[in-house]
Amino acid sequence: MKNKMFLRCLTAVFLATLGVMFLYSSAFAQAKPIVLGLPSSFFQPLVKSGRLAVELAIDEINGTGGIFVKDEKVKRPLKLVTADTRCGEPGTPVHAALMAVDKMIADEKPDALIIAPFRSEAMVATMDLIAKYKMVTIQTIAQTPKLIEVFQGDPEKYKYWFRATTNSTYVGTTAAKSIDSLRKQFGHDKFFTIAQDTLWAKGSADALKGRLEGLGWKMVGLELAPVGTNDFSPILSKARGSGAQILYVVGDMPTLPVCFKQWKSMKIPTMLFLDFAVVTSNKAWGMYGEDLDYVMVMPFPGGTGAPVKALPQSAYFHQKWAAKKLPGMDDPRVVSSAYDGVYILKDAIERAGFVPSKDPDKFVGFLEKTDMTGVSGRIRFDKATHQQIFNGDPKESSIIVAYQWRAGKMVPIFPDIVAEAKVELAPWMK
Amino acid sequence: MEIIIYGITNSVTLALMAIGFSLTFGISGVPNFAHGAFYLLGGILTWIFINQLGIPYLFSAILSVIIVGLLGFGLYWGLMLRLRGLVVNEVIATLAAAIVIIEVLRYLGFSGFTYVLPEFIKGSVNIGKAWLDYQRIFLVGIGVALIIFLYIFTHRTRVGLSFRAIAQNERTAISLGIDSDWTAALSMAFGSALAVVAGLAILPLGSIDTEVGYDILIYALAVGIVGGLESVPGIVLASFILGFCQILVATFFKAQWLTVVTLAAIVIILAVKPSGIFGKYKELEERV
Known about the structure:
Order of helices and strands of chain B: HHHHEEHHHHHHHH
CATH topology of chain B: ABC transporter involved in vitamin B12 uptake, BtuC
Structural class of chain B: mainly alpha
CATH architecture of the largest domain in chain A: 3-Layer(aba) Sandwich
Number of helices of chain A: 13
Shape of chain B: globular
CATH architecture of chain B: Orthogonal Bundle
Structural class of chain A: alpha/beta
Radius of gyration of chain A: 25 Å
CATH topology of the largest domain in chain A: Rossmann fold
Strand order of the largest sheet of chain B: 1-2
Oligomer: heterodimer
CATH class of chain B: Mainly Alpha
Distance between the termini of chain B: 47 Å
CATH class of the largest domain in chain A: Alpha Beta
Largest interface: A-B, 37 and 35 residues
Number of domains of chain B: 1
Helix content of chain B: over 70%
Largest sheet of chain A: 5 strands, parallel
Distance between the termini of chain A: 102 Å
Strand content of chain A: 15-25%
Largest sheet of chain B: 2 strands, antiparallel
Strand content of chain B: under 5%
Shape of chain A: elongated
Number of helices of chain B: 12
């Protein structure tokens, strides 16, 4: 009798174990990861930081069990696969970048792409691959307006592309407006430009000139500094004698820090608006210290370089970054967009109830209806361009913020709606 | 006044960049194309010693000078000794060494703007009507001190005299018992160490980036070609000519012509006096 009872118990335990194993294995099988493809140029500091931002978002989402996919009734974790397009390295042809993207899509079969190629030329060329594979893409680096032209040339074909960051038009306009705020505050109306003697920097200088002159400013000098210039004293002396109140400096060469250091040591009587990505993150103070005091900078989009009180998500993003002990950003531009990009996908998957690769055409409709809060404000897309909307009010759209360095902190100064202080003149200008 | 002040600082900067290259070439006859790479390596080593190992600035600097000096010695003893006299091979070998050093540093991540050496003293002073930062004053001081040191060293010390002897006539120097290989290797070590000294004076003005390794070589070559590659007085004179020309062009014309000034000076000198202002090599060739 005892033996019979024992056998019954044993059988029950055995069956229960089998049942648990079956349930566990079926659950495990269903929890197949959602694969995010990240094809970009990892040579570039902003891509390195962007990848960390994507991984940060993925860790957070996977920490909660993953993304709930309604149609499959299961939470699926995210998995990141990468491919180095090398398009940010000198001399890499566009077709090499395209091959890297193509190979990744063929080999890894991602459900969606994030960040995407770095160089605008490579990104424009990638548009056809995105269309060919119907690959939903949240693109967060390339800034060229050309992408919108391509999209609008055939919206049905290119509908899988979404730019979840700024574009150069927004950036240029906001830079001009933030400089123009000094006219209202101090009556300034003359500016002097120092541009690195390269095509992109000259392009930025030209664009800003047009915008500022449209706002009533006068450019009183333009100097092109050859790459490698390590003494800016003659140029800065000219700026001093020009009567300019604003000095706009644009470039990315290794010797550009010499320029703002000399601006300070020579006590040039202008405010300095520096279009130089390296000095737009908190890390820069550790490198250049008080040489940055009073310098105005504008990382984009808002909140990516330093937190802004009016953008609560920006504080959260920077806290999480610090808590994970991630390395300081060498170039914070568009890094927060990479982080937001993952959440944009999560939000759309949860609303759609399926992953992008299952029905990309239908999924696009859910992305178009995105309305959520991100690091730089409210995230929505313009249906006519698939471009994230940027404007001056974070309750209505995303924004770009200009800061001024003060005693080791980047203080938001523009737009007024999020400014935490007024611009302060450098002491030698008072 | 501004033109004089900034002209002097710019000229001394150029002289510092070129002097180590000239010293090595003048004595050993080796065009050390790894000069810029040593300049860069010295800066990065100093940064590592200060920021990663917590060694004080002065000791870090001295340590970097010694390490890179030894590396220069090793490059000569290990490689250049076998190629001596084969000019094209010497150029290829030193250029290859430069590329290896710079690209390995790039591979290890030493590019970007993270690597900044602190200035010796922060701040600036008004001289006449020109504001000048203390680092540039130090830079001029280091340049002047280095030239005085080199003069005393090559005229008053045994090693320095052997340097000059080899530079003047190697065969006669050998007949007097001077070991020419040893002396040439020492000159390479000295030239490499001087590259680091130049880097320690100049790099705190900006940031350390691997591209600097190539840029410095170009400046050193430009100054050397104008002044005479093997002539220290020529280097000093050429630095002042180029330094003041650059400042004048940037002041009275446009800064974008800065590079053109340097290249035009090279072309003119090569056409008029190929050995450079104080150079002797080409003149000897022409006489032969």
